[in-house]
Design a protein that fits this description.
One of its GO terms (molecular function) is 5-methyltetrahydropteroyltriglutamate-homocysteine S-methyltransferase activity. InterPro entries: Cbl-indep_Met_Synth_N (IPR013215), Cobalamin-indep_Met_synthase (IPR006276), Met_Synth_C/arc (IPR002629), UROD/MetE-like_sf (IPR038071). One of its GO terms (biological process) is methylation. Catalyzes the transfer of a methyl group from 5-methyltetrahydrofolate to homocysteine resulting in methionine formation. It is an enzyme of class 2 (transferase). This protein has 763 residues and is α/β, with parallel strands linked by helices. The chain has two domains: 373 residues, TIM Barrel; 317 residues, TIM Barrel (Alpha-Beta Barrel), CATH 3.20.20. The chain is built from 27 helices and 22 strands. It has an eight-stranded parallel β-sheet. Strands 13-18-19-20-21-22 form a six-stranded parallel β-sheet. A hairpin with a 6-residue loop joins strand 3 and strand 4. Helix 17 packs antiparallel against helix 18 and helix 22 runs parallel beside helix 23. The radius of gyration is 26 Å and the shape is globular. The mean pLDDT is 95.
Length: 763
């Protein structure tokens, strides 16, 4: 029987209950028992939602208090020394959150490094491995959740991160060694896990190995065969799950692993079907990911069924159907979206609806003439036809403007060396100039004011004055602290993408379309529905007002085209390149309007630049070509004297440093504090020519670093980057922080910059 299953489900809740509970626990207003009860209720609700939608084998272990990689680090006992409980006590939730957020009671308890989960906007905590690493089961969350699900009467499939993927995602600390050497000592833990799950009555386990869609070194490819031959003797039927791309040169390897099933992503890589059929052993289940787990558009059921019918002819009951990947990357439920128009609503599917699509596809193979199947197919055909013909999709004037763009439109008129001389003379900034990345704390009062304005309870005049008051407060604080380049604080902005998307034609928005980014941080991606256009200025009034309140340099803040694209739910009917270039033209118009208003520094954030890289290197050049061109198109219309900044976070820069240089931003600010300035090695080896602001403190932790700690980081930076190229700034925006810690941290940062200036003068 063709079986409908899911690889994972969103954990945050329809109303972001997990976010609220986590933040309540961290703030001390919620007890640990209350937090755990929230988690228990959410898990029960989500299992039932999937079961009611028709999912027959439910994922367990996809829930996490912060992220699933961190959960595995706790389970495997991979806890850095600075976080290990005293006296050999077992790790607890306080241990987990200290690893994620930093230990507030220790000068050395900085949080673990955070980076992006493959090419998504989801983050994970990077495991830290040492040469003497010991593994031991020390976290029972998975087994407890399996017990919960079984007690509720569900048929379950526990989800674990595979041993090769877990090691690949980690980082070596201390003396250098090959982390693959740890495999032999890690594998016995998987045996223990499988044995305990078997004792609980589990039949299948899902082992996520998404690294199989990457360009793997030969040693890692060989390690797969060795590892799974050893795991073969352990109990349970094993489904190896791959996603986010195609297996390509790893197809034969994955198909031949001695496991009972294989899942492949046919949304991101449809070309791997039907080649997989010729390599799959006759005993093995094949799970086809045909419903997009990373976007919000309805599945074309006819198209998916054509593949399933062909597969069923070859596989019979060894065919399973699923979303392409975990639904973690999808909003929870479309049901509550009562403010969408009927046409747009009919085009969309969130996690619950995607489960329904998976279930109807499985039923269509078993009962092709069932009334529910025929009705679903008719609705799907109507949706696909209606969307293709809708006039809201295409704007001829946008397409004509894009067609007229030439290569010259994405080039500054003078090289950087000439521009920077003019900018320094124009701006008159000291060495090690200080600034922030853009946002200041989004207080409850700010959020309540925005909500009141949106709901019509506050008039435009009153709203504008309230936001201007916040701007004045931010400026006074920065002036008192002595920052050199100021920002207006972004009080009026709900999100760095949504705020701009709301002012562009071609976007649509949801009320409850939240997805988790990391920990308690959730984002609500806008949806690109059609061609994109800026009908009027978006930020000029706010930034101009801010500049009128100070004699210091005020920095205009925009979000770049690649980040706007990557952090939205994109269209599927045109290429990412076309969407990015349409966005670039819209942002270019805003840049030129800011310049005309007298703004001398304009920051165009491209936090997602590296995130957009294809997972296979062979596809990198094409992406990097259009991504860098899109940024330059947005920035290159300004005069030489106008300084263009960009910001990137959570990026390993070594392998894309030439493209970052090709963006030709005058100043780039990056996250470097969690890596202890290690990321600057790329800029040093490449001899990066432009200016750079390495982050000197981690804004994702409540810890306030001392001036001495920031000085230490800046000295490390100055050893790798010439002092005259260095700026001083936090890792990222301060939106999620509170004012007291923000004030203290920025005061320490300014003091650190002044100390470096003194040292520079003494040379």
């Amino acid at each position: 029987m063709t079986l409908a299953h899911s690889l994972g489900f969103p954990r945050i809740g329809r109303d972001r209950q997990l976010k609220k509970a986590l933040e309540g626990f961290w703030q001390g207003t919620l007890t640990e028992a209350q937090l755990r009860e929230t988690g228990r209720r959410l898990r029960a609700e989500h299992w039932q939602l999937q079961k009611d939608a028709g999912i027959e084998l439910l994922p367990v272990g996809d829930f996490a208090w912060y992220d699933q990689v961190l959960t595995h680090s706790l389970m495997f006992g991979v806890i850095p020394e600075r976080f290990r409980p005293a006296d050999g006590a077992r790790a607890d939730l306080h241990t987990l959150f200290a690893m994620a957020r930093g230990a507030t009671d220790s000068c050395c308890g900085h949080a673990q490094e955070m980076t992006k989960w493959f090419d998504t906007n989801y983050h994970y905590l990077v495991p830290e491995f040492t040469a003497d690493q010991q593994f031991a089961l020390g976290w029972d969350q998975l087994f407890e959740e399996v017990e919960e699900a079984l007690a509720l009467g569900h048929r379950v499939k526990p989800v674990v991160l595979g041993p090769l993927t877990y090691l690949w995602l980690g980082k070596v600390k201390g003396s250098d060694f090959d982390r693959l050497d740890l495999l032999e000592s890690l594998l016995p833990l998987y045996g223990e896990i499988f044995q305990r799950l078997a004792q609980q009555g589990v039949e299948w386990v899902q082992i996520d190995e998404p690294v199989l869609v990457l360009d793997l070194p030969l040693a890692w490819r060989n390690a797969f065969e060795r590892a799974y031959n050893l795991l073969q003797k352990e109990p349970l039927k094993k489904l190896v799950a791959t996603y986010f791309g195609g297996l390509e040169d790893n197809l034969g390897l994955a198909a031949g692993l001695p496991v009972d099933g294989l899942h492949i992503d046919l949304v991101r890589a449809p070309e791997q079907y039907p080649a997989i059929l010729d390599r799959l052993p006759t005993y093995k289940v094949l799970s086809l990911g045909l419903v997009n787990g990373r976007n919000v558009w309805r599945c074309d059921l006819d198209k998916a069924l054509a593949v399933l019918h062909h597969a069923h002819e070859r596989l019979g009951d060894r065919l399973w159907v699923a979303p392409s990947c975990s639904l973690l990357h999808s909003p929870v439920d479309l049901t509550g979206e009562d403010q969408l128009d009927d046409e747009l609503r009919s085009w969309l599917a969130f996690a619950v609806q995607k489960c329904e699509e998976v279930a109807i596809l499985a039923q269509a193979i078993r009962e092709p003439e069932a009334p529910a199947v025929q009705a679903a197919l008719a609705r799907s055909r109507a949706v696909q036809a209606g969307r293709a013909a809708s006039p809201r999709i295409h704007r001829p004037e946008v397409q004509q403007r894009l067609a007229a763009v030439s290569r010259a439109d994405s080039q500054r008129t003078a090289p950087f060396a000439e521009r920077i001389r003019r900018q320094r003379a124009h701006l008159q900034l000291p060495p090690f100039p200080t600034t922030t990345i853009g946002s200041f704390p989004q207080t409850p009062a700010i959020r309540q004011t925005r909500l009141a304005f949106r709901q019509g309870r506050l008039g435009a005049t009153e709203y504008t004055e309230a936001m201007r008051s916040e701007i004045r407060h931010a400026i006074r604080l920065q002036e008192e602290l002595g920052l050199d380049v100021l920002v207006h604080g972004e009080a009026e902005r709900n999100d760095m993408v949504e705020y701009f998307a709301e002012q562009l034609e071609g976007y649509a928005f949801t009320r409850f379309g939240w997805v988790q980014s990391y920990g308690s941080r959730c984002v609500k991606p806008a949806i690109i529905v059609g061609d994109l256009n800026r009908p009027r200025p978006m930020t000029v009034d706010w930034i101009s007002y801010a500049q009128s309140q100070t004699r210091r340099v005020m920095k205009g803040m925009l979000t770049g085209p690649v980040t706007m694209l990557m952090w939205s739910f994109p269209r599927e009917d045109v290429s990412p390149e076309v969407q990015a270039r349409q966005l670039a033209l819209a942002i270019r118009d805003e840049v030129l309007d800011l310049e005309a208003a007298g703004i001398r520094i304009i920051q165009i954030d491209e936090a997602a630049f590296r995130e957009g890289l294809p997972l296979r290197r062979a596809r990198w050049p094409a992406y990097l070509d259009w991504a860098t061109e899109a940024f330059r198109l947005s920035a290159s219309g300004v005069r030489d004297e106008t300084q263009i900044h960009t910001h990137m976070c959570y990026s390993e820069f070594n392998d894309v440093i030439e493209s970052i240089a090709a963006m030709d931003a005058d100043v780039i600010t990056i996250e470097t504090s969690r890596s202890d300035m290690e990321l600057l090695a790329a800029f040093e080896r490449f001899a990066y020519p432009n200016e750079i602001g390495p982050g000197v403190y981690d804004i994702h932790s409540p810890r306030v670093p001392s001036t001495e700690q920031m000085i230490s980081l800046l000295r490390k930076a100055a050893q790798r980057i010439p002092a005259e190229q260095l700026w001083v700034n936090p890792d990222c925006g301060l939106k999620t922080r509170a004012w007291p810690e923000t004030r203290e941290a920025l005061a320490n940062m300014v003091a650190a910059a002044r100390q470096l200036r003194t040292e520079l003068e003494r040379r």
